[in-house]
Design goal:
single chain, about 500 residues, alpha/beta, TIM Barrel, 9-stranded parallel beta sheet, 19 strands, about 35% helix, about 20% strand, binds N-(aminocarbonyl)-beta-alanine, binds zinc ion
Amino acid sequence: MGLIGITLAIAVFLASSSPVLSENILIKGGTVVNADRAFKADVVVKGGLIEAVGPGLKAPKGAKVVDATGKYVMPGGIDPHTHLEFPFMGQVSNETFLSGERAALAGGTTFHIDFALQWEGSLKKGLAEWKRKAQRAISDYGFHMAINKWTSETAAEMAEMVREGINSFKFFMAYKGALMVSDELFLDGLLACKKLGALPMVHGENGDAIALAQKLTIEKGITGPEGHSISRPSYLEGEATGRAVKLARLLNVPLYVVHVMSKDAIEAIEEGHRAGQRLWGEAVAGAISLTDEPCWDPDFKIAAAHVISPPLRSREHQTAVKAALAGGSLQLIGTDHCGWNTTQKAVGRHDFRILPNGIHGIEERLHTAWEDLVNAGLITPPDFVRLTSAEAAKIFNLYPQKGVIAAGSDADIIVLDPSVTHKISVATHHSSLDMNVFEGKTVHGKVTTTISRGRLAWDGKDILLEPGSGRYVRMEPFAPHVYGGLDEQEKRWIGERFPYGPAPVKRVGDK
Ligand code: URP
Ligand code: ZN
Ligand code: ZN
Ligand code: ZN
């Protein structure tokens, strides 16, 4: 290589490896919304962090000024549940880290937690595989790890994952023959999580019963997407969720129930709350704004696009999900973003059992939740911040680094203009998908600016970040919000429950 070649190579290397530097930014005149209150204030961003929040702040040298008059200034959205480039049901979902995060940032989500899978039985291999997928990431991201096999290495590998910055593990009670775990494995997993201060997450559906119901549905001649809904009734979600909740109660382990879609599962969670459990329930954007009606659409493309597990459900369940978010039975909103193109979904045209499961929402979540919860009068803007950002930050031990507009926090910030109306469409979305399940939905309120770790990421028109400028964010174990006080509770524990805590337990009246 000649001198010019070397110079060029160095220039290309620098261009591709140098991080996009954070900027000085002043956000002026807006209403800052945190989970506890909303107040008028300016926000100064410097060095990737929020430097100051208060009235009448001066722009730092060379700062970009964002006029937020009449707008809300809120912590960037945290999506606790994504599947980018997800290998599942014989295919890999079309949405990559790059396209998915472009969509996320355009929709005001600045951090997401993606589900890495145990790979060839190994968690270490799974993490390496997901780090490879994330090489072209542009925003901050973290990982959960799903476990479906228990080997002699698994407990030690879980400890290693925690050292790598993963503080949550997912267990699937569905997908028989693939990701599904037995109650025995789930119990082992719960104990291992408790020891490590990690949070177990559960997909609550009875996989054995569903496998049989699927077979019977096919035998009845129902092969289309509606068969997916028919073979996964809400009571099987309620049964498995209730079982998971009770197994966690037995061992006194905190538990996070992902993608709660039904009244039945909500009731199981409420029962756990009444028993005093540390228990969180996640709604997903689709369950708030969609029903299962399109699964019966004669156009296969439309029906297939709405297939997700647990399935979208009737209006009655949708109303229950919204009420549970407003009333506190469910504590946060994710997406389960798992983006398949129509050609990928088409594989299941003649058999819903092989139709890839999953819908999208990473770009739409904040807008649709704003429309169907805040504009509908069910929750306030601070509730919105709690449900879409702050609570996830607390659960996954990132608070107050994320989830709040405060001096010292990461400058992950959105500006939402409540006066801008827009229509969601595949024609204008940033995702790589060729369908949009929210097509045609009108939303009053739009994210006009997104700041990711101090970098202007979205200006209302364009995504401004370079591929590869994303950052893996570690999440430490023993989140105070999840594990705080648990030791003390078990030390003093007397009474009804099985005492499988770490300390010896005496019953009332014992000498
Ligand atoms: O249908 C879904 N939910 N696909 C993604 C995998 C999961 O269960 O979260
Ligand atoms: Zn799941
Ligand atoms: Zn999922
Ligand atoms: Zn909480």
